[in-house]
Amino acid sequence: MKAPGENLRGLFYDIRPFMDYTLNSTKAYHTDTLNTLGWELTVCNALHPAGTPLRRIIARDASFGHLLYNHLNRYAPMESLARVIEIGGGYGYLMKDLLDRNNRLKPCMLDISPFLLEKQRETLRGYDVSYRIEDFLETDPGFLSGFDLAIMNENLGDFPTLVGLNEELLKALADKSDPILRSALYFFERYRLAMPQGAFNLNIGALQAIEKLCAAAVPYIYIGEHSCEAVVPEPLRSFIRVCSTGNPERIALKGHDEYTIKFSYLESVAKTFHYRIVRGPFADFIAFDLTDALQNILLTRGRMGDEAEMVCQFVEDLFQYAYMIMIKD
Ligand SMILES: C[S@@+](CC[C@H](N)C(=O)[O-])C[C@H]1O[C@@H](n2cnc3c(N)ncnc32)[C@H](O)[C@@H]1O
User: Fold this and answer.
1) What strands lie across the sheet with 200-202, from one edge to the other?
2) Which atom in ligand 1 lies closest to the alpha carbon of residue 152?
3) Which residues of the chain carry a pLDDT beneath 70?
4) How confident is the model at residue 16, as a pLDDT?
5) Of 25, 92, 131, 244, which has the most beta carbons under 10 Å away?
6) Where do the structural domains in the chain lie, given as residue ranges?
7) Residue 68 CB–ligand 1 contact under 6 Å
């Protein structure tokens, strides 16, 4: 006969060794605390405004949004698109640039942060823009129908990440007790994602966001973010170093942590929905000249001073940050 509590104890010992994963969320930070993006200088903001020092090292003195518009124009008929949704638009600079190039665009800015949505209203004053304060993971999928283009720049790393997973944990608990792990397992099975060996982190929120946009059949989707699968072309490897473990890595920021993005998993989701994919580093559309001076800065890892350090970081970011354009066939 079993002693009272033995079943419970059995369950405890079954589960206990696997209970180490955590869910990283930035929601409270974004809704309650955030009052500047100054601590997390995005590539987009680094090229704002005109005259900013980093503009001097790029081949064409232009803003992030103008360079991105040109690049998107190669794959999407930008002149004939109308309804565009930008999710997590920060200070609104990227959308302002897109509107400069095409004032027929009718943007909707959706953001979780009341502070940043207010900033977007200021930046985009005078344009015909609608605003929506919301966590995109809670957006009604029906709301997305009719948009021609969706943009998510440098924000998927803020979306929830499961930290410290492993295959045994997923398979042991997902079927039984844990809805979060059930959802993680769903992505591996539904989109045939290769299960990593050993401990890993999973960009579960990014997967949910991309699935939502693809299921809504938005014809063109652009995402850009810090990649955990970054690659530097061979001729540049002695100058530019990136971190590329293939596993979403933690980036500690003021008041919250972000995780780098495993783009190959997001690509598998989009391909299942019959999207064609264009993928690469930001350097594909933010070209720079590898002058002698720049080579020197990169080889000395920016140790010659504050500006050199900033330039070195920026050029590395052009390869550490990746984009993916999804085109509905
Ligand atoms: C690092 S900022 C990037 C801002 C801008 N896109 C840029 O490139 O400069 C991240 C943005 O995503 C928003 N964000 C984060 N999580 C979100 C969520 N779950 N739903 C909607 N917006 C979110 C933030 O409030 C912020 O506007």
Assistant:
1) 22-24, 161-165, 200-202
2) 6
3) 1-19
4) 40
5) 92
6) 26-161+203-328
7) no
